[in-house]
Amino acid sequence: MLSFNLLIKMQIRQALKLSEQLHKVSESPQLDLELMLCHLLDKPSSYLFTWPDAELDSEIISQLEAMLERRLNGEPVAHIIGYRGFWSFDLEVSPHTLIPRPDTEVLVENALQLCQKQNARVADLGTGTGAIALALATEHPGWELVASDFVAEAAELAERNRKRLKLDNVAVVQGSWFEPHNGTYDMIVSNPPYIDPQDPHLQQGDVRFEPLSALTADQQGMADIEFISSHARNYLKSEGVLLFEHGYDQGELCRDLLKRLGYKEVDTAQDYGQNDRVTYGIWPGNRE
Ligand SMILES: C[S@@+](CC[C@H](N)C(=O)[O-])C[C@H]1O[C@@H](n2cnc3c(N)ncnc32)[C@H](O)[C@@H]1O
Predict the structure, then answer these.
(1) CA neighbor of 222 nearest in space, from 258, 246, 252, 190
(2) Ligand 1 residue neighbourhood (C-beta within 6 Å)
(3) How far is ligand 1, taken at its centre, from the CA of residue 61, in Å?
(4) Which residue CA neighbors atom 14 of ligand 1 most closely?
(5) What class is the 96-283 domain?
(6) Which CATH superfamily is domain 10-81 in?
(7) What is the pLDDT of residues 59-86, one digit of tens each?
(8) Distances (CA, A) of 222 to 240, 267, 279
């Protein structure tokens, strides 16, 4: 039971101190507390530090108590408040797919560098919340994006995010990998499941609350990457780009795979922690 149970009044500065209780479950206890409080107050984080003496009413205090209980049980903050910031917007999240990660913004940055056309046709495979497709669509209103996921609830979630962000240049479709896709693309992007099903990290932290369908792939995490890389050759235009996220220790495997499949200019970009994270290659085109 939390210690502030019987309090009927509390200032913002006192509420912020409650983050101390989250140290055992979170690597970012202060941020977690700020996100929950901002959500309850419907204010930006600057409000908390501009008005530290403002008093919270009993309704807010009891809602904060309920949120802290959930966080202490390990539930991710994004699930508790219902959204996560990604790129330049907030995305609704749900337990049916991955909570977007900051490292995936590295994929978006590299995609924007690798395809600088004003008009391009781009596919996002395993779109989840729609994070990657929607970020690319905000940067390039002239691009046509097709975002797909085989989990119906994930495709519905991506569609809700698309509608709320009013991005008419994205079509969300449901189906397995290339099944719902037609025609050819200037670029294919994906953040597929890539964790080895035996990885002990799956039993720790926030990932315990995310579905295995979004996290794990057979062949030590490489099965979906191999499938996508092989079949993308039938869906890429000549000189089209394939770009995907992978595990920190899969960079060399991914580069070797793309070279073996005939892609050129294969390389890997590092994430904000300097780990291999995104590998890409150019498809030279199918010979007659
Ligand atoms: C690692 S999550 C990435 C979600 C989102 N793109 C992101 O970066 O936050 C992988 C996504 O791939 C989807 N997925 C898994 N297997 C799939 C398949 N066979 N076809 C299409 N999508 C699949 C999952 O449902 C999940 O939403």
Answers:
(1) 246
(2) 97-98, 100, 104, 125-129, 131-132, 148-151, 154, 176-177, 191-193, 213-214
(3) 37
(4) 126
(5) alpha beta
(6) Ubiquitin-associated (UBA) domain (1.10.8.10)
(7) 999 999 999 999 999 999 999 999 999 9
(8) 22, 17, 13
